[in-house]
Structure formats: structure tokens, C-alpha cells
Amino acid sequence: MGRSRTIELLRDVEDLPADDRQFVAALERGLRVLRMFSSAHETLSNGELSRGTALSKATISRLTYTLSRLGYLTHDSSSGRYRLGPGALALGYASLSKFDVRQVARPLMQNLADYAGASVALCARDGLNMIYLEFRRSPNALGLGLDIGDRIPLATTSVGRAHLAAISEADRKPLLDELRRNDPSAWPKARRGIEQAIRDVAERGYCTSLGDWVPEIHSVGVPLDVNSPYGILSFNIGGLASTLPPRLIETDLAPRLVGLARRVAEMLGAATTDRPSGKPGKGGH
């Protein structure tokens, strides 16, 4: 686990006031451990967790022991490594299983992924990252191997920029201030990308990230403003730069992604409208 991964995980808590008596530090540390696991890091050792969370090995040992006893982690005694247990998986399933947007968007996302030969994701903001709520890929797609539950940066990805472009100025400003504080050296370039994305979404309905996060990856993002427990969401199409050149994105894929977002919003609006009066459905978030 590198330093950048540690910084990423600590961003959401580093600005909390030290005298916040309502904040339970032990709970935050336990959640920090759980958030280390992803499709790219399905199993982790105590040492890897210690380096990735910036917690001492003694603290990590107590946390992993407790989380294992509670069913949130499982321990492989032969390798000494941990993975998410049934308790943690149940929390994620409970959060997403009744989430209408995923169910409506999934087939449309798969059709577009197959057409583009790439991946299509639906994301929500999680601190200074975007987290994958739904993910569809073409069988031929090559990329970073991301999946549901993985996080990517807010400032340098198209899906993150689409979110920033869609939220209000009042909500955006503190996020931009936090991005600047967390990485002052990278902020000038990140700010230019975000400002361009705000203009692009206003004018064209989409924004791009052409190697700004990972040099080999191109993507296009579109915001989705629907009635969601996660606030404003975003879609993206992403893949290798060699298969998603800017011209293809601009003339073909971006308009298709804008159309997908519009169609999902229309379908969800119709589903809400069609429900009998006085009988809220499962999507009444």
C-alpha cells in the first residue's frame, strides 16, 4: 500500500475537529480498515492494513480480531490474511438491493458497454472519491479491473467532475477547498480540469478525463440528478485511450451516454408517477 492510498483513505477524516466529543474514534478506525478492501485488494494482511491506514500494527491486530469476531472480516489462518466477511457484505447488499436506479440503469448500461467495447459505471460521491454503485463491461473491454464498491478520485475522473459540475455552488465550494488542501501541488491542474468540466456539462451535458487520472485511460462522464439516497449520481464510459479516442467520444459515445442518463431519469420519473396515490413504492427515497 503506497503513500497515495493512505492519503486517499485519510482524507475523509483528517479535517474533523479534535474536540468533537460525539465522534467515536475507535469506530472510525474500524471502518477505515473495512474500506481498505476492494476488488483489487480482496485479501490483506495486518501489515498491509497497518501501512494503508497509518495505524499501528498493535491497533490493527485488535481491530481485525474484533471485526473477525463480529463477522465483518474472515481470517485465513494458513496465510494470515483477511477478507470481508458476511457481515460487511450484508451491509452493502442491504444498502443497494432496493436501489431503483441500479435496476433501471443496468440493462441500458450493459447495452452501451457492449456497443462501446468498454465499461460503463454508475457512481456516487464518497468523500473525495466516487464509489461504483453499478458496473457493466463489454466482454472485450480492457481497463483497470474495477468493480462495484471500488473508489476512484473525485477531481481527476470524468465521473467525479460530472458530479462536481452538477451540484450547487454552495455544495461545491467546500469540496474544492478540501481538494486544494489535500494536495496543493496537484491543485492547479485539477482546478483547470474541474472548471472545464463545469463549462462542458453546462454547454454539452458531459465532460471528459483524457489521461488526467491514469495516462492510459480515457473516459466521459454525465451527471444523473434523480431522487436518490446518495444525492446526485454520475455515469461514465471508460476504457483504454487506444480504444476511446477523443473524436469517438465527442461524436458518438458522449451523446449516447447523455441519452442513457436522460432515459434513466425519464423511466424513474414515470415509475414514480405511475405509483398509486398514497402507496409509496420502494424507490421513494
Plain-language structure description:
Helix 3 (46-53) crosses helix 4 (57-69), helix 6 packs antiparallel against helix 10 and helix 7 crosses helix 9. The chain contains 10 helices and 8 strands. A 6-stranded antiparallel β-sheet has the order 5-4-3-8-7-6. A two-stranded antiparallel ribbon has the order 1-2. The relative contact order is 0.11. The chain has 2 domains: 3-91, Orthogonal Bundle (Arc Repressor Mutant, subunit A), CATH 1.10.10.10; 98-274, Beta-Lactamase. Helix content is 48%, strand content 17%.
Name some characteristics of this structure:
Arc Repressor Mutant, subunit A, Beta-Lactamase, globular, disordered N terminus, 8 strands
CATH-level-4 superfamily name of the largest domain: GAF domain
Instruction: Quote the distance from N terminus to C terminus.
Output: 37 Å
How many domains, as an integer? 2
Quote the CATH topology of the largest domain: Beta-Lactamase
CATH architecture descriptor name of the largest domain: 2-Layer Sandwich
Mean pLDDT: 83
Helix percent band: 40-55%
Flag low-confidence runs: 1-17, 272-285
Radius of gyration: 20 Å
**Strand order in the sheet with the most strands:** 5-4-3-8-7-6
Largest sheet: 6 strands, antiparallel
Instruction: Give the C-level CATH assignment of the largest domain.
Output: Alpha Beta
Sheet/helix structural class = alpha+beta
* Count of helical stretches: 10
Which outline best applies?
globular
Instruction: Let me know the number of strands.
Output: 8
| Beta-strand content | 15-25%
Order of H and E elements: HHHHEEHHEEEHHHEEEH
Q: What multimeric state do the chains show? A: single chain
